[in-house]
UniProtKB/TrEMBL annotation:
Its cofactor is [4Fe-4S] cluster. Keywords: 4Fe-4S, DNA replication, Iron, Iron-sulfur, Metal-binding, Primosome. Residues 225-325 form the DNA primase large subunit C-terminal domain. This is DNA primase large subunit PriL. Residues 332-364 are annotated as: Disordered. SUPFAM superfamilies: PriB N-terminal domain-like (SSF140914). It comes from Natronolimnohabitans innermongolicus JCM 12255. The keyword Iron-sulfur applies. The lineage of its organism: Archaea, Methanobacteriati, Methanobacteriota, Stenosarchaea group, Halobacteria.
């Protein structure tokens, strides 16, 4: 059983096992270097690689390193760390349970480290909400929605699903993805928490290391990545209108231009992005962009908030994430943060290159 808990430390039973095993977490962090080292590795690898690193052979070390890793994450307390850490733990759990579910060897029945679908559904109180069908599963819509809201891709949106009697049909792979979200939610739940001083004092070195790793990654740099697919719906719509050559009222043009400037685009790049049709007003764009960026005015302007966008009628096509954020920049930041690094191809490294070359050639 200990091995199962070490593989899946987020299970309720694993939490109980920790309570039995570690009578006093303060003593563990003070005296058990192997546990602390594995905890540090869990968090550092989560930040750097989106995984939790190589599990230790000793189940006790592996199991106890999980609550200690949560302590470390809480000591730093940054939202971006909580999100990255929970995502990495959930990704590791997903890999493991997918392998367990696919493991059809005869030995399986005696392998206590394997987790089966039924156990995982029971763990998250999902047995009533998830029913097997001939070609997959049906998930009650009330269960589906919160688990699908952070999933990538339009196919997860309810409007693109065929609802049957209040249930959403999903494939087996999709059900696994929803379970990964359930795991992520549980791991994120309650983080960060207040760490007693006596525990924090023993983990200062490890916490400093995690802080350094976070600082080196310079997570704020990511917001400077230009990935139009991840733009908030309002900005996508405005950019679309500009590229179609439609005339936008001043407040709309201001909003999209300020947004693009705020995510780090230069005036030339914004001009390039707008320059898709012949009616494009380059001079006006240059003037307005320089002004917003503060190059020709005393102020650098910020992107309007969702409330302002709404009052001007510029808030359109709201999606689930929109319900949880107050600002288009927060929307974009969260989308960028959630995306796999592979999906983060900067527009400027793709389509923008030709235009850049043209511009340099023309001496612009
Ligand atoms: S809620 Fe905010 S981010 Fe979403 S579409 Fe409206 S203005 Fe844009």
């Amino acid at each position: 059983m200990q091995r199962l808990h070490a593989r899946y430390p987020f299970l309720e039973a694993a939490r109980d096992a920790v309570a039995t095993e570690a009578v006093d977490l303060a003593t563990v962090v003070e005296q058990d270097g192997a546990v602390v080292d594995r905890a540090r590795e869990r968090v550092v690898t989560a930040v750097e690689d989106g995984e939790t690193g190589e599990p230790r052979r000793e189940p006790r070390v592996e199991l106890l390193s999980y609550p200690v890793a949560r302590v470390l994450v809480s000591m730093i307390g940054e939202r971006v760390l909580v999100r990255r850490y929970a995502r990495a733990e959930a990704a590791t759990a997903y890999e493991r349970f997918a392998a367990d579910f696919d493991d059809t060897t005869e030995l399986k029945s005696v392998q206590s480290t394997d987790l089966d679908l039924e156990t995982l559904l029971t763990e998250f109180d999902l047995t009533d909400a998830v029913q097997a069908t001939a070609d997959g599963y049906r998930v009650g819509v009330g269960t589906y929605l919160p688990l699908a809201e952070d999933q990538w891709g339009d196919e997860w949106r309810l409007v693109n699903r065929s609802l049957t009697d209040g249930d959403v049909p999903v494939t087996e792979d999709e059900l696994r993805s929803l379970l990964r979200e359930a795991v992520r939610g549980r791991i994120e739940d309650g983080l960060p928490f207040d760490v007693p001083d006596v525990i924090a004092a023993s983990l200062e070195d490890e916490a400093d290391e995690v802080r350094e790793v976070l600082a080196e990654l310079d997570l704020t740099r990511e917001i400077d990545t230009v990935v139009p697919d991840l733009f908030p719906p309002c900005m996508k719509a405005l950019l679309d209108d500009i590229q179609k050559g439609e005339h936008l009222p001043h407040h709309s043009r201001f909003a999209i231009t300020a947004f693009l400037a705020n995510i780090g685009m230069s005036t030339d790049e914004i001009v390039d992005l707008y320059r898709v049709n012949s009616t494009f007003g380059e001079d006006m764009t240059r003037y307005q962009t320089d002004h917003i960026r503060g190059d020709t005015s005393p102020t650098e302007y910020s992107t309007p908030s969702c409330a302002t966008m709404q009052s001007y009628g510029d808030c359109v096509n709201k999606d689930d994430l929109c319900e949880r954020i107050p600002h288009p920049m927060a929307y974009y930041e969260e989308r960028i943060d959630d995306a796999d690094d592979d999906d983060l191809e900067d527009w400027r490294e793709g389509e923008g290159e030709g235009d850049d070359a043209e511009q340099s050639a023309s001496g612009d």
